[in-house]
Every structure is written in structure tokens, then in C-alpha cells.
């Protein structure tokens, strides 16, 4: 049989002809009680949420910096780069979590082949997508403003590529440690890895982006920016060479670009919405909450996507799905059933309201604590977040099974689409929420 992108993560039993009980409620992943699942999800979810809160506060502080005022296209770049970083981290976490649960990281040699190949692939993707994200921001900025100075284009490219490269390298190494450590401690990596990938990733990436752009604007001559861009591009053949020597990543080197590039384009459209709302004085304050609603939605749906993918890898051969998941006509089926994936979907949806209440309160405390969120603001914000997460969980259930039925690895394909849709949905719903508050004359605080 030809090698496919799902082969390296499928348990060895499929190749020996043995059968496994195909029950949606049971998989080869570590067994877990409801209490255990909630605790494993809750801690990294809260850490990830506090990371996005910190990112929102930072974005609120730096929006008045000279570089953001002079080159407003950076606001378009923010969701694209944060989303791209999240996609790469979460797909890495999901792939390695599935490999760990499938027993593919027991051998030291095989484990390090998987790790090195995936990290090299991620650096390649970060470099290319960083460049494409800056070009996308340039095009969207030119379409809306009618002009784009060349020095702004160079600064956007340098900022985007350098931020993506450094953030990807740092967080990739951390993510490998989290997955190996959680497996040794008997914790299901699917519950921990993807939210931990985003815990302070947004804050680190945003801090790198703001400082890189400000430094490039103030201190560096244009020719230095050209050399920086050239250096990152010269490393591309190295990453291609390393990742192509590993079977598990060689197939993704050729076929794994479609979802992450499409996701980057979708996130850029969300960035365009953010750019327009930030410039509207009637919608003041939206920039603080954008990373929070987008981050929470992306974190929760990535957990569900990773869990469904692991279940399919362990219990079904590629192209085969449970009988009740061969169509997606009823979105409520995602939440009602006896399987662990139905149970986790309900848990994740129920985390939205208490989690967002904690994060909204944390934002107001970090901003000085002199005011409290107004009741209308709390209602519309929670409603927007609940609609976003409900929609994403339903889409994830359908998308992951559909991808598996078509022989594609959901770990590599589903998370980029889902997190990008989360960015677009979150930004659009948040803009609508603030527009409703403006229409009724509510300032958002009391």
C-alpha cells in the first residue's frame, strides 16, 4: 500500500490484521472519568485564557504606539500571525498527542524522528506563512487605503517573518516537553497539549511582534531589514531537507499547505474587520476582548478536534467512520450521545460562560479595577462567545469525520480551518456585540 499521511499514527494492530472494538465511547487513549477529564481540561484552559487576557491588555496598551499609528496594516497582521502561530502549534500538539496515545513514541529513535521532523516542518511553515501573511496584509491595506509605501511593505514582511520564526521555535520546543511530560504522568495529552500550546503563546507572539515592528521602525535601516528577510529565506532549504527525510512529515511537506494557507487568509479577513472597528471611536474597547474571544473559541474547539481525531486513529481505518457520523444533518448530535466525544463536547460548551466571566473580570482588574462590566455588556459578550463555541464544536464534529472519511489526517487539516473560523466568527460577533451596545448607549462599564 502507498504511504499516506495517516499511516504513521495508526496503531500497529491495523497492519497485523487484528481487530479492535469500534465503539465511539472507548478508545485506546488513557481511560478517564468525567471528573478527571474536567480537571485535565480546566487547568490548561484557565491558563490559556489568562494568556489571551494578557495579550488583549498588551494590544490595548500598544495600539497608540507610533508604529501602530503610522502603519495601521499591523492590525490586519495581528489576527493572521496569532492565528497562524496557533494553527502551527495546535496541529503539532494534536499530531504528537495522537502519536503518543497510539504508542508511536515509545521507541526513542522513532520518537526523536517524529519530533525533529515535525519541528523542522513547523519552522518551514512559519517562515513561508509569515511572509504570506505580510503580503496578505499589504494587499488588504492597499485595497482599503488605495496606497501602500514600499518601506511599510518591507517592515510588515520583516516583522511578520521574524515573529513567526522565533515564536514558532520557542513554543515548539516547549510543546514537545509538555506532551512527553504529560504522557509520563499518565495525563491524556489531547486534554492538555492544545490549550497549553496557546496558554501564553498569544502573549509571547504579540510581544515579539510589537517590539520587532517598533524596533524595525525606529532603529533599523532599510537594508538591514532586507538582510533579515534574506536570512530567513535562506534557511528554507535546510528545513525542507530535514523534514523530507522523515516519512511522517514528508507527506505533509507536499500536502499540508492547503489548510494553513486557507486559514491564514480567513484570519486576515478577521484582521481587516478588527482594523476597521479599532479605527471607529464608537467601538472603543473592542481590541482588549478580541484575543480573548478568539483564543477561548480556538482552544476549546482544538481540544475537541484532537480528541475526535485520536479516537478515529485508534479505532477506525482511514475512510471508515462510525455509522451515525456518515452525515452531518443534525448539529445537536454533537452534544447528545453516550460516547466520550459527546461528553467532552458538553463539558467544553459548559466551560464557556464561567470561563469568560473569569476572564472579563480579570481584564477589568488588570485595567485598574475602578469599574465593573455593565450587565448589557456581559450579556452580549457571553452570548457572542457561546454562539461562537457552539458553532465551532458542531463544525468540528462534522469536519473531522468528513476529513477522515476522505483519507485525510484531521490532526493536520481540521485545526487550522477551525481556529481560523473561530477568529473570523469571534471578531465578527464581537464587533456586532459592541455595535449593539453603542446603539443602546451602553459604555460597557458601570
Automatic annotation (TrEMBL):
The keyword Transcription regulation does not apply. The chain crosses the membrane at residues 37-59, 153-180, 223-244, 256-274, 286-303, 347-366, 378-403, 415-438. GO terms for molecular function: inorganic cation transmembrane transporter activity; monoatomic cation transmembrane transporter activity. It catalyses: Fe(2+)(in) = Fe(2+)(out); Mg(2+)(in) = Mg(2+)(out); Mn(2+)(in) = Mn(2+)(out); Co(2+)(in) = Co(2+)(out). Belongs to the SLC41A transporter family. PANTHER family: DIVALENT CATION TRANSPORTER SOLUTE CARRIER FAMILY 41 (PTHR16228), SOLUTE CARRIER FAMILY 41 MEMBER 2 (PTHR16228:SF25). This is Solute carrier family 41 member. It comes from Acanthochromis polyacanthus. The lineage of its organism: Eukaryota, Metazoa, Chordata, Craniata, Vertebrata.
Amino acid at each position: 500500500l502507498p504511504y499516506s499521511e495517516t499511516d504513521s499514527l495508526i496503531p500497529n494492530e491495523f497492519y497485523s490484521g487484528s481487530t479492535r472494538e469500534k465503539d465511539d465511547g472507548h478508545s485506546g487513549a488513557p481511560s478517564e472519568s468525567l471528573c478527571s477529564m474536567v480537571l485535565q481540561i480546566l487547568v490548561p484552559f484557565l491558563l490559556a485564557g489568562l494568556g489571551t487576557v494578557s495579550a488583549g491588555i498588551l494590544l490595548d496598551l500598544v495600539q497608540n504606539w507610533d508604529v501602530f499609528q503610522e502603519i495601521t496594516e499591523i492590525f490586519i497582521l495581528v489576527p493572521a500571525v496569532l492565528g497562524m502561530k496557533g494553527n502551527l502549534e495546535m496541529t503539532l500538539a494534536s499530531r504528537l498527542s495522537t502519536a503518543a496515545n497510539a504508542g508511536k513514541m515509545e521507541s526513542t529513535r522513532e520518537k526523536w524522528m517524529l519530533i525533529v521532523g515535525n519541528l523542522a516542518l513547523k519552522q518551514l511553515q512559519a517562515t513561508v506563512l509569515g511572509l504570506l501573511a505580510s503580503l496578505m496584509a499589504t494587499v488588504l491595506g492597499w485595497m482599503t487605503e488605495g496606497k501602500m509605501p514600499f518601506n511599510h511593505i518591507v517592515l510588515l514582511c520583516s516583522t511578520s517573518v521574524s515573529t513567526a520564526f522565533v515564536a514558532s521555535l520557542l513554543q515548539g520546543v516547549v510543546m514537545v516537553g509538555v506532551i512527553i511530560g504529560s504522557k509520563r504522568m499518565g495525563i491524556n495529552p489531547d486534554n492538555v497539549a492544545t490549550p497549553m500550546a496557546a496558554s501564553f503563546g498569544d502573549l509571547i507572539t504579540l510581544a515579539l511582534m510589537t517590539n520587532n515592528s517598533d524596533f524595525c521602525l525606529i532603529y533599523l535601516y532599510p537594508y538591514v531589514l532586507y538582510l533579515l528577510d534574506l536570512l530567513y529565506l535562506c534557511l528554507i532549504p535546510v528545513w525542507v531537507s530535514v523534514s523530507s527525510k522523515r516519512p511522517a512529515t514528508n507527506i505533509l511537506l507536499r500536502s499540508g499547505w492547503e489548510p494553513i494557507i486557507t486559514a491564514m487568509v480567513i484570519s486576515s479577513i478577521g484582521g481587516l474587520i478588527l482594523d476597521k472597528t479599532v479605527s471607529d471611536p464608537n467601538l472603543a474597547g473592542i481590541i482588549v476582548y478580541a484575543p480573548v474571544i478568539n483564543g477561548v473559541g480556538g482552544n476549546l474547539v482544538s481540544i475537541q478536534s484532537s480528541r475526535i481525531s485520536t479516537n478515529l486513529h485508534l479505532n477506525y481505518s482511514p475512510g471508515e467512520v462510525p455509522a451515525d457520523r456518515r452525515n452531518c444533518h443534525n448539529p445537536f448530535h454533537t452534544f447528545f450521545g453516550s460516547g466520550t466525544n459527546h461528553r467532552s463536547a458538553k463539558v467544553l460548551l459548559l466551560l464557556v460562560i464561567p470561563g469568560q466571566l473569569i476572564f472579563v473580570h480579570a481584564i477589568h482588574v488588570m485595567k485598574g479595577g475602578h469599574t465593573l462590566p455593565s450587565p448589557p455588556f456581559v450579556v452580549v459578550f457571553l452570548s457572542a462567545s457561546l454562539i461562537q463555541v457552539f458553532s465551532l464544536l458542531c463544525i468540528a464534529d462534522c469536519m473531522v469525520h468528513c476529513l477522515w472519511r476522505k483519507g485525510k489526517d484531521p490532526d493536520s487539516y481540521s485545526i487550522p480551518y477551525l481556529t481560523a473560523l473561530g477568529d473570523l466568527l469571534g471578531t465578527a460577533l464581537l464587533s456586532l456585540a459592541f455595535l449593539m451596545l453603542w446603539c443602546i448607549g451602553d459604555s460597557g462599564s458601570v
